[in-house]
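Record type: monomer structure entry
Structure origin: computed from sequence
Chain ID: A
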Amino acid sequence: MEYHTLAQDILSHIGGRENIVSLVHCATRLRFKLKENHKADAEGLKKNPGVIMVVESGGQFQVVIGNHVHDVWQAVRAKAGLSDETPASAEDEKSGNLFSRLIDVVSGIFTPFIGILAASGILKGLLALALVCGWLSVESGTYKIWFAASDALFYFFPLVLGYTAGKKFGGNPFITMVIGGALTHPTMLAAFNASQQTGSMTEAFLGIPVTWFNYSASVIPIILAAWVSYWLEKQSTRLLPASMKNFFAPLICLSVTVPLTFLVIGPLATWLSLLLANGYQWIYALAPWLAGAAIGALWQVCVIFGLHWGLVPLMINNLAVLGHDSMLPMLLPAVMGQVGAALGVFLRSRDARQKMLAGSSVTAGIFGITEPAVYGVNLPLRRPFIFGCVAGAIGGAVVGFSSTHVYSFGFANIFTIAQMIPPGGVDATLWGGIAGTLLALILSCVMTLIAGMPRNSTADTAIPVMPGEDDILSPMTGTVLALDQVPDATFASGLLGQGAAIIPSDNKVIAPFAGEVASLFQTRHAIGLLSDSGIELLIHVGIDTVRLDGKPFTAHVQPGDKFKPGDLLLEFDRQAILDAGYDLTTPIIITNSDEYREVMKVAGSAVTAGTSLLSIIHR
C-alpha cells in the first residue's frame, strides 16, 4: 500500500487503535477524536515528512496531510481496522468544554460530504455564469439536468445530514436519514404549498395543530431531530428485550421523532434559523466593511485551529433562509491573501525546494486548499502569513463595502466568483467582490516580495548564509530523516543527543555555523565541531564507516582550526562507500542538547547544503 508506512507512523504517534474514538477527514486533514489526548505525540508526528502540521483544537487531534488526505485516511482505517460499522459512541465524546464539543459535532456532521458539497456549489456557480454569458437557458434540457445535479444535495439536505448526524451522535444513521426523508417527503411539501395558497398554515396531528414549513435545504431541524432520535434509540435499546429491539427501537424513533419534529422541533429550529440569519444581517448591516475586514483577517487563524466549522452552518443557514449569503465572499480575500503571500515566496525564493513547495501551494490555494501554503510556506516564515492576513482584511473590507453575496454554498476558491453572480445579472456587487479578491492577492504578494523574508532567510539566497547563534545550517545536500529513522540504535535512541540525519547526494561536508574544529576522528569519517555560541555538533558520515579505515575520506581541516559557515570540512567518495556495502545515512547530532530546551528540525524532506536544518531553543 502506498501510504502504509505513513499510516503506521500516524497510528503509533496517536496512541494506537485503542485510543481512537472516531476518525473523519476534510479537504486536507485527518480529524481524530481520541480517548486520551495525552497519549498522542504531536511533536513526534510533525517530524514525519508526510505530515504538514498537527493541530489540537475543537476537541480533535488534527493531522494536516494535504490533497491526498483521502488516500491516507483509507490507509489509516485499513491499518487500524476501522470501518463504517464502528461508529463513535457519544458517551466517549463528552470530554472538553461546550464550545469544543460543538465544533467537534459540527465538523463531524459536515466533513464526510465536504467534497460533494464544494462540487455542488461550484457547479451552481458555473451554471449561473453560463446563463449570464448566454451559453445556456433555463428552458434547455442541458441546464435542467446540470441544475438537478448541482441542487440535489441542497434540496435533500435533511436526508444527508440525517445520515451523518446519526453516525456522529452514535445512533442508527438509517433511522435519522429516514427522518430527514420525512421532512422532504412530497406529501409534506404539498401540504406546505397548499397552506401557502389557502393562507391556512395549520392542520392537526391527533388533535394537535401542525404548522407546515418547507424543510428542504434546512440544517438545524434535522440535526436536533437526529439527536432526539439517538436518545430515544438508546433508551429503547436499553429497555426492550433483545428479541424486540431490532424492530421496535426504530419503530419508536420514527413514530415519535417525526411527529415531534413537525410539531415542536421543526418550528423551534425554524425560529432559531430565522433568528440567526436576521441577527447576522443586523450585525452585517451596521458596518459591512468592518465585518469584511475582521473575517478577512481572522479566517485563516480560525482554519488553523479548526474553529471555522462553527461558521459553516451559519453560511448554509443564510442561504436557506435569505436565499443569499454575504459571509462566504468575504472569505475569498482571506484565502487569496495567503495564496498571494505564497506566490511572493515563489517569486523571491532561490531555494529550489522552497520554490517548488510555494508553487504547488499557490495552485492548491487557488482552488481553496490553503493548508499547504499556510503550514508549508507562510507560517514558517511568519511575515508572509501576517501579510496574507493584513491583505485579507483590506480585501475583505472592500468586499463587505460592496455588499457582495453568493447565491449557492461552496468553499472559498476561484469558482466562488461565479457564485457571486446575482440572479438578475452582473452588477457592481460582483465587481466589488472581484476587486477585493484581486487586491488581497496582489497586495500580499507585493508585501512578501518587498519584506516577506528576513535577510538571513535561506529562501532569499542559494548560497550559504550567516546563521543566527541558535541556527544550524545543513552541512550537506540530500534527503532529511528524523533521528529515530537512523538504522543505528545508538543514534536513533538519542543517547548521543538530539538532531537529524541526511542521506547525502553529493560528496562534501561544509561548516554549518561559525566556530572551530573540536575533534577529528583518525579515520576522518566523523568530525566534532564547537560553535562560537557553545553548540557542540557531531557529524558522522555513514553508518559503521569507521571500518573503512579512512580510505574514502579527505579532511580539509584539523582540530583547533577556525571556520565560517560554508567552509569545506570534509570530502568523501560516496560511490566507494556504497560499493563497500555501507549505509550513507549521516547523523548530525548536538551532543550537548541536554543544555537546551529543544532541538527543532526546520528542514523538510530534502535540504540543500547551507540552508537551515536545525534550530536551538534555549531553556
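Annotation 1: Confidence is low (pLDDT under 50) at residues 86-93, 455-468.
Annotation 2: The chain is about 50% helix and 15% strand.
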